[in-house]
Design goal:
The protein is of the alpha/beta class. It has a single domain, classed as Rossmann fold, CATH 3.40.50.300. Helix content is 54%, strand content 6%. The protein has eleven helices and five strands. A five-stranded parallel sheet has the order 2-3-1-4-5, with helices on both faces. Helix 1 (9-34) packs across helix 11 and helix 3 packs parallel to helix 10. Residues 1-35 form the signal peptide. InterPro entries: P-loop_NTPase (IPR027417), Sulfotransfer_4 (IPR040632).
Length: 300
């Protein structure tokens, strides 16, 4: 009897590689099935204040009110910023199919399009108690690392030496928003994040609060300077990750929107599509887990 031939190393490697490939395909298919637009959403709320005006805190407050909220997602949001900056709103519009509350860049600069697209949507302009407080908060925030996109929104990529330009961007945005909603007061509210728990009253005029009552818990206070004061190792890793993601993002955007190689841009399209599906699925699972495990919110 002839001994059975052992399979060649190449075939063994091929079979070994096939298993993770199949698992990846199954996981991607599962993510695709999970990442479907919900059948119904509440009337949308857009938080249209600039960076460091408490947008994350307001987003957290809306999450407590069981809104399905889209805040800053490090990779997806950077992609949305660059699509917006290059006049392509399709990705942003697509995201509105999945969520009913939105905050952080670039949403503050989409209020006109969103107001026209969603006639029942409400808008909250978040502010600081004065320009000086906002500027100093921005100085600390921007000082953590340069980002090309700051120039799109604030006229400069850093605050130091450009204070008047940056402050003027805050003034212009506030004036433009107020002018637009002057004839639409029922859809608009202003909220000064420094006012603390009083902000529940403002938010509940726009949001769906139980019987118009306000929650009996403190208004969230998120993404403050204290949140960034981590241990040296964690802090340094955070800075390193931010630097790496920012540089990759800027190089990718430069290639994609300014005539880079077709093969590179095609690969970027595939990567962004995959990231979008995976993040969408994770957001959906997180939201369902939050709803399932959250304790009932008490109201005054």
């Amino acid at each position: 009897m002839r001994p059975a031939r052992s399979s060649s190393p190449a075939k063994r490697y091929a079979r070994a590689a096939l298993i993770p490939l199949l698992l990846s395909c199954l996981l991607l298919l599962a993510a695709r099935l999970i990442a479907q637009p919900p059948s119904s959403l509440r009337p949308k709320i857009f938080v249209i204040g600039l960076s460091k005006t408490g947008t994350s805190s307001i987003g957290d407050a809306l999450a407590l009110l069981r809104y399905k909220r889209l805040g800053w997602k490090d990779i997806r949001s950077r992609h949305l910023v660059h699509t917006w900056a290059n006049g392509d709103f399709r990705a942003l519009i697509n995201q509105t199919r999945y969520f009913d509350a939105f905050e952080d860049l670039p949403w503050p600069f989409m209020y006109q399009q969103m107001a026209e697209m969603y006639p029942d949507a409400k808008f909250v302009l978040s502010l600081r108690r004065d320009e000086r407080v906002w500027l100093e908060s921005m100085r600390r925030h921007v000082g953590r690392g340069s980002w090309q996109a700051y120039g799109y929104f604030y006229g400069a990529t850093e605050v130091e030496g450009h204070e008047e330009v940056v402050v003027q961007s805050y003034r212009n945005h506030t004036e433009n928003v107020r002018a637009y909603f002057r004839s639409r007061p029922e859809r608009y509210a202003e909220l000064v994040i420094d006012d603390g728990d009083k902000n529940w009253e403002v938010l509940c005029r726009m949001a769906d609060c139980a019987g118009g009552r306000v929650p009996s818990i403190p208004f969230p206070k998120s993404n403050t300077a204290a949140h960034w004061q981590q241990g040296s190792v964690v802090g340094n890793l955070h800075v390193l990750w931010g630097w790496f993601v920012t540089r990759v993002e800027e190089m990718s955007a430069e290639s994609y929107y300014k005539g880079g190689w077709a093969v590179v841009n095609g690969s970027l399209d595939v990567c962004w599509s995959l990231v979008s599906v995976i993040e969408q699925a994770c957001s959906e699972l997180y939201y369902k887990a939050m709803i399932a495990t959250a304790e009932p919110l008490a109201f005054n």
